[in-house]
User: Fold this.
Amino acid sequence: MKNISSLHNDTIKFITGLIQKTSLRKKSDVFVVEGKRELQLAHEGGFIIDKVFYCPALFKFTFSKEWSLENLGTNNIILVTETVYKKISYRKKTEGIIALVKKKTFDLDSIAFKNQFPLVLVVENIEKPGNIGAMLRTADASNIDCLLVANPKTDMYNPNIIRSSVGGFFTVPIGVGSNNDILKFLKLKQITPYAASLNDSISYEKIDFSTPTAFVVGAEATGLSTFWIKESKTNVKIPMLGTLGSMNVSVAAAILLFEATRQRNFYRDM
Assistant:
């Protein structure tokens, strides 16, 4: 097992560069994942673990037959000192394990649906990585078929997306494309898009979402483009009871997805 104790090691510099620089992430074929649970989910989700960096002084978990470093599918395990580990860690509460993981493509053609009546979330022009991560977490919780990113404004391997998704990045199928690409995909799969918009809209609880459905949400600052307003079956809104008139996009997505999930469970039980 290799050891790294120097902060000036080229591999350590490479990892910090991946965390900090979008340009380097775009050129590289690997990305950074931190945390025991996240790495386990990545491995189970078919991602290839390239290198594991492990700090025994910070790793508080007990190894077992069910979980060990070897279970991550790589023999390339490197011991690092606590000082070195803290240099490459990007989480406030670290677990002492971080890895370089091989990228996957986000091709729309690779997405397979698990539900008879697919439920999809489309996010357009979202800039904040934390919002995308939060929506991936919600997507996992509501067991939707996929999350589609239209006209992405941040790279999907941003560490803040992975961290804020709490593993959802590895459990929810993700597709990335232009508005036209995603609309073509939805039409091919016979999925009806509904635009989340306050203008000329119907309150969400009055619509039947038990058929194949895609909710389309946009950035908080600008909302959805006219493209999706035009191409969606109808606009849907969540009534605002306070004075602000809006809510976080990830919260709005959660309300819509769980309404669709509630309707589908209700209809199946009848």
DSSP finds ten helices and twelve strands in the chain. Residues 1 and 201 are 60 Å apart (CA to CA). Residues 249-269 form the longest helix (21 residues).
